[in-house]
Design brief:
The structure is a single chain. 26% of the residues lie in helices and 34% in strands. The chain has eight helices and 14 strands. Strands 1, 2, 3, 4, 7, 10, 11, 12, 13 and 14 form a ten-stranded mixed beta sheet that branches. A two-stranded antiparallel sheet has the order 5-6. Strands 8-9 form a two-stranded antiparallel ribbon. It starts with 6 loop residues before the first strand and ends with a helix.
Length: 238
């Protein structure tokens, strides 16, 4: 039975859980071990998590390489150790009464190709050790800048100190760092307060199952929600 379950499962991840937690619950629900995920979501983040089941694990790298879309909220005036709301406050500054044009100008600095320095709290490895493990030990190491790409960004709401935004970006893009860097560009600092992934490649949340459906073990419902490999190929135009 296990070998007959193959495909892509879209899950709407809730807050306060890791991507690995979702995979573990999916394995229990479907009673299959061969499940992976395409692109980690931080525990605070919600939204689209792509799971590859059975033979679909062979296209895991392919799906991970595709563009992503996020909606999020930046909170200006406070920088944190993790560049998001989960970290310790490092510095607090007064937030000037920015005009909409001031904020737009800062966002416009981060379009197209540019380099990002990955955060210390990340899964990137140095000498085989993930950076987040070094960060937990209070260590900071030099990180090489990475070339990333922002296809489009949109400011959805400005109520200083909060800014809501939508960004479509390349693989390897850190939205936490994006928020941090925009705050830095404005001169008052900032961090990522909320994050939700809404799209990855051709997939969006419209066909996603909830984490509660997985957790409650509704196996038939979850199997029915699987996108078959031929359907995935059609969606991607392959």
């Amino acid at each position: 039975m296990e070998t007959s379950i193959n495909g892509v499962l879209l899950v709407d991840k809730g807050p306060d859980m890791t991507s690995h937690d979702v995979v573990a619950v999916a394995r229990k629900c479907l009673n299959i071990k061969k499940i992976g995920h395409c692109g980690t979501l931080d525990p605070m983040a919600t939204g689209l998590l792509i799971l590859v089941v059975g033979k679909a694990t062979k296209i895991q790298d392919l799906l991970m390489s595709e563009d992503k879309e996020y909606v999020g909220t930046i909170k200006l005036g406070i920088t944190t150790s993790t560049q998001d709301a989960e970290g310790e406050y490092l510095e607090e500054k007064e937030v000037p009464d920015f005009s909409d044009d001031d904020i737009k100008a800062a966002f416009d600095q981060f379009k197209g190709d540019f380099h990002q320095i990955p955060p210390m709290v990340s899964a990137i490895k140095q000498n085989g050790v993930p950076l987040y493990k070094l960060a937990r030990q209070g260590k900071t190491v030099k990180r090489d800048p990475r070339l990333v790409y922002v296809y489009s960004n949109r400011i959805d709401r400005i109520e200083v100190p909060e800014i809501d935004f939508t960004v479509k970006c390349s693989k390897g893009f850190y939205v936490r760092t994006y928020a941090h860097d925009i705050g830095d560009k404005l001169g008052c600092g900032g961090h990522l307060q909320k994050l939700r992934r809404t799209r990855s490649g051709k997939f969006d949340l419209s066909s996603a199952v909830s984490f509660d459906q997985l957790k409650s073990g509704k196996r038939d419902e979850v199997i029915e929600a699987l996108i078959s490999l031929p359907e995935v190929s059609r969606m991607r135009g392959a």
